[in-house]
Design brief:
CATH superfamily of the largest domain: RNA polymerase II/Efflux pump adaptor protein, barrel-sandwich hybrid domain
Strand content: 35-45%
Distance between the termini: 65 Å
Radius of gyration: 47 Å
CATH architecture of the largest domain: Beta Barrel
CATH class of the largest domain: Mainly Beta
Helix content: 10-25%
Number of helices: 4
Oligomer: single chain
Largest sheet: 6 strands, antiparallel, barrel
Order of helices and strands: HEEEEEEHHEEEEEHEEEEEEEEEE
């Protein structure tokens, strides 16, 4: 073959050979083996449930209020000449303590004047009685009965009335003099002081605002759902007093800085109406002697302080207690069955809070409930469950790495 023809035929020959070789390779390709993809097994924490008892604790919040708050007002006028060392804002006092004194001189003079009037009226009465006795004897000597006018009965009645009026003036002057000393009506504390030594006060002016310290009260709101679980000292129209024997304990807590302090109290009263906006009923908790020195340097429970209250509710028996995260939306939990697969289970939740869910129906004792929060969990999904801290035994059926 001439060289020129070979030059053009050689590429064609190579191309035809390559196409034939490719077809042969494709025709004789090995068949790929089909394998089942490994299934994804979830690792979850779970617990084996059992019937038990749960003590309901209702959390509420409120502000400390005094059981009695009063405005101290003078009943006489005058200049303040003395105040107690405890008559200052924040000062403590006991019932009957002298808080301040008002200048008594004018009232001492009024009392002396009234006493003089009593003496004068008493002398006038004695004089009229003596004159009446003389007239009575004169008429007796004549063998006749003296008339009322002759016996000076009108004059005696007038003298007696004058004496009674004078004695009333003495009593009034005595009371006014006693009122120049202002005493504490109860054991309490000064909330606000309005006067000081040298200041003139008049009847009706404000001396101070005070409040009682024997106990404080805290109004706590409860929802209608929470009312089901707490015993309240209800009072009905035909009751002489609140329901006897009910002492619902309350633990009052307050955060001060980095420390939390607590006081023991009890529910003593129930509000008269449900709040129309919040649909809540207010109950009143009482804490006795809140200003006594407490353990570990506990400060006093101050008026206006915001506190947290833990109200002891009714105990629930024969229930299943789970962590709150085990409860899913729609009132369901995830159960791990005997084949290590997830199953959705509707349950009846009788109580729940931020940490706990209490279930009354829908579970059986010994069921394994998943505690791990799963955003997507289809029924039948295979899992490896660590039950109450005990890790599962890994086997070929459950471990994809062993397949």
């Amino acid at each position: 073959m001439p060289r020129s023809k070979l030059k053009f035929a050689l590429p064609v020959i190579v191309l035809v050979a390559a196409i034939a070789a490719g077809r042969a390779i494709i025709a004789n390709k090995p068949e790929a083996s089909r394998q089942r993809p490994p299934s994804a097994v979830l690792n979850v924490d779970a617990t084996r449930v059992k019937l038990g008892r749960f003590d309901v604790v209702i959390i509420s919040e409120g502000t400390v209020e005094p059981r009695t708050e009063s405005t101290l007002i003078p009943e006489v006028s005058g200049r303040v000449i003395e105040i107690s060392a405890d008559f200052r804002e924040g000062g403590y006092f006991e019932q009957g303590d002298v808080l301040l004194r008002i200048e008594p001189r004018d009232y001492e003079l009024a009392l002396a004047t009234a006493e003089a009037q009593v003496a004068e009226a008493s002398a006038a009465l004695e004089q009229e009685l003596a004159l009446a006795e003389v007239v009575k004897n004169d008429w007796k000597q004549l063998g006749k009965t003296a008339p009322d006018l002759g016996l000076r009965k009108p004059q005696i009645a007038a003298a007696e009335a004058a004496l009674l009026s004078a004695r009333s003036q003495v009593e009034r002057a005595t009371v006014d003099l006693r009122r120049t000393v202002v005493r504490a009506p109860y054991a309490g504390r000064v909330l606000e002081q309005s006067v000081d030594v040298g200041q003139f006060v008049s009847v009706g002016s404000t001396l101070a605002r005070i409040y009682a310290i024997d106990y404080v009260e805290i109004r706590l709101p409860l929802s209608t759902r929470e009312l089901e679980f707490v015993d309240l000292p209800e009072r009905f129209r035909d009751d002489d007093e609140a329901t006897p024997g009910i002492e619902t304990p309350v633990l009052v807590e307050a955060d001060i800085g980095r420390n939390t302090y607590s006081w023991e109290g009890r529910i003593v009263r129930v509000g008269g109406a449900i709040d129309t906006q919040s649909r809540q009923l207010f109950v009143v908790a009482q804490v006795d002697d809140p200003y006594a020195r407490g353990p570990q340097g506990r400060p006093p429970l101050r008026i206006g302080q915001f506190v947290r209250a833990k109200i002891q509710g009714r105990p629930l028996g024969d229930v299943f207690v789970l962590p709150r995260e085990a409860l899913r939306e729609g009132g369901e939990v995830l159960i791990v069955d005997n084949e290590s697969r997830l199953q959705r289970q509707p349950v009846s939740v009788v109580w729940s809070d931020g940490e706990t869910a209490v279930i009354s129906d829908g579970l059986a004792e010994g069921d394994v409930v998943t505690l791990t929060s799963l955003s997507i969990a289809a029924s039948g999904s295979e899992v490896l469950a660590t039950i109450d801290g005990v890790a599962p035994l890994r086997n070929v059926a459950a471990d994809p790495a062993a397949r």
